[in-house]
Write a structure and sequence with these properties.
Helices cover 35% and strands 21% of the residues. It has three domains: 209 residues, 3-Layer(bba) Sandwich (FAD/NAD(P)-binding domain); 162 residues, no CATH class; 76 residues.
């Protein structure tokens, strides 16, 4: 079959190879896809976590779950445990869990208002009350049984993974789907008189295409340097701009693996701690306005403990924000080239998935290649802005005393839309009608988990009579507790499931 249009992806890594594989699968053989990758440029690999959307993406690509877990050194992620974000006390740091499973409900009853109306002093934490996943994850259990099928199970989940190995998995699948890889180093981008990319020059020759996709990371060689798409910074709202990253081996081979990301707050940011099969991926995220690099290194060393002496952290600088026009003419940016928001809540891969999904569906097989640009830009910019609202929510409710946290709670640093919602949420819980699904990465219940985990108060006292099903709600709360205890007994340990899937343990 004669192939029509040609897409050239500049840059590999997770963004490049996920884009290549997805478009090859979605567009078929009528579109030729080439990826230019330089062996000299490494993968940043700060985003070692995903959101549950990745399961649909992997299923669409035709990658088996067992193969993915084995080849990407993946483990299962059931949410994020936040430690010390609200405040610290004599009893120790405050903590709460943000699970992936939505709160349990029936056609007649939502448990959220009934939890809000309970006595604060005696009620269980929100996530523990409304879902069994809290108990399962805390017990380091897996979200599924080994025989439940690819990407299926009783609980919602995503993955932690080795970023370098993930890129290899995606690259192998992309090549199976017909993507051509060219090894070479980008030397120049030639722009014509219309402001479109005419060709790219590499150390191996000239490359042309109908559509160029910029996956060159923070360098943004095409969309930024060549086409001058403006960058909108949100550093006045999301303050962190540095990270020190490392891996720390377990002290024994059979050490339990956490089934969630642990995000531990410190004086000027937070530390991620991710359980992989053979090591923990750890990173200290911080704001250089509030502490210097030496102080950040000391905070990370304190978290690592005695293992710090054997670790040399890698330093990364970033600025949260996005390109205001990620699609210009015949060039569209995906991944870090289009924007970056601090690594809280694993938004990096989610944004890649959102971008490539739109490109695949909107891609014109004939006519001007930039026909979708306006709509793509509108939706992607809105998605970035809404993620900023969600990330800022984690910070602005804190009662920690340090300057970093007090400035985060300053209303002047809170996005206007988030401020409006917070005022409404003082009198009702977050609702699905608060959000437009086409531009959201997080559902209304994700906001509920953060709000009520952080101790936010929604006052329903005046409307108490509107919630008469107290007995039924109490019955459901009790069932959730019972089912959670049963699931904790019945589900395998997280490490046992991973080892069985990877063949490192007898079935």
């Amino acid at each position: 079959m004669t192939r029509g249009r040609h897409i050239l992806i500049v840059g590999g890594g997770t963004a490049g190879w996920l884009t290549a594989a997805y478009l090859a699968k979605a567009l078929g053989t009528s579109v030729r896809i080439t990826l230019l990758e330089s062996p000299e440029i490494g993968i940043i690999g700060v985003g070692e976590g995903t959101f549950p959307t990745i399961r649909d993406t992997l299923r669409f690509l035709g990658i088996e779950e067992k193969s993915f877990v084995r080849e990407a050194a993946a483990t299962f992620k059931q949410g994020v445990r936040f430690v010390g974000w609200q405040a610290t006390s004599a009893e120790g740091p405050h903590g709460y869990f943000h699970p992936f499973e939505p709160p349990f409900y029936t056609d007649k009853t939502s448990l959220v208002p009934y939890w809000l109306l309970q006595d604060e002093a005696g009620r269980p934490p929100f996530a523990e009350a409304v879902t069994i996943q809290n108990r399962v994850a805390e017990a380091k259990r897996a979200p599924k049984q080994p025989g439940e099928g690819d990407f299926a199970g009783p609980l919602n989940y995503a993955y932690h993974f080795d970023a370098v190995r993930l890129a290899r998995v995606l690259a192998d699948r992309a090549r199976q789907l017909g993507v051509e890889r060219i090894e070479g180093r980008l030397q120049d981008v030639v722009v014509d008189e219309r402001g479109r990319i005419e060709r790219v020059q590499t150390d191996g020759g000239v490359l042309t295409a109908d559509l160029f996709i910029d996956c060159t990371g923070f360098r943004a060689e095409l969309i930024g340097r060549a086409l001058r798409s403006p960058f909108r910074s949100v550093k006045h709202q999301l303050f962190t701009d540095r990270a020190l990253t490392c891996k720390l081996p377990y002290d024994r081979a059979d050490a339990p693996i956490e089934s969630y990301t642990v995000a531990t707050a410190h004086e000027a940011g937070w530390i991620w701690d991710i359980g992989l099969a053979g090591a923990r991926g750890i990173g200290c995220v911080y704001s250089s306005r509030y502490i210097d690099d030496d102080r950040a290194a000391a905070i990370l060393a304190g978290h690592l403990g005695p293992g710090a002496r054997d670790v040399t952290p890698r330093s990364l600088a970033f600025e949260s924000g996005w390109r205001t026009t990620p699609w210009i003419g015949n060039c569209v940016a995906v991944g870090l080239a289009g924007g970056f928001l601090e690594p809280l809540e694993s938004t990096g891969v989610v944004l890649i998935e959102a971008a490539v999904g739109m490109i695949a569906e909107l891609f014109p097989r004939q006519g001007p290649v930039d026909l979708p640009a306006c709509r793509f830009n509108e939706l992607m910019v809105a998605r970035y802005a809404n993620i900023v609202n969600f990330l800022k929510l984690h910070y602005c409710l804190s009662r920690r005393p340090e300057p970093f946290w007090r400035d985060n709670a300053d209303p002047a640093t809170i996005p206007e839309r988030l401020g409006e919602l917070l005022e409404q949420w003082r009198y009702r819980p977050p609702s699905r009608f608060d959000f437009m699904l086409e531009v959201e990465s997080f559902a209304f219940f994700n906001y509920q988990y953060i709000l009520y985990g952080m101790g936010f108060r929604t006052d329903l006292a005046e409307g108490r009579d509107g919630f008469p099903d107290t007995a039924e709600a109490q019955r459901l709360f009790a069932r959730i507790k019972t089912f959670g205890e049963r699931a904790t007994r019945d589900l395998p340990s997280h490490r046992a499931l991973v080892e069985q899937l990877t063949g490192t343990r007898a079935a």
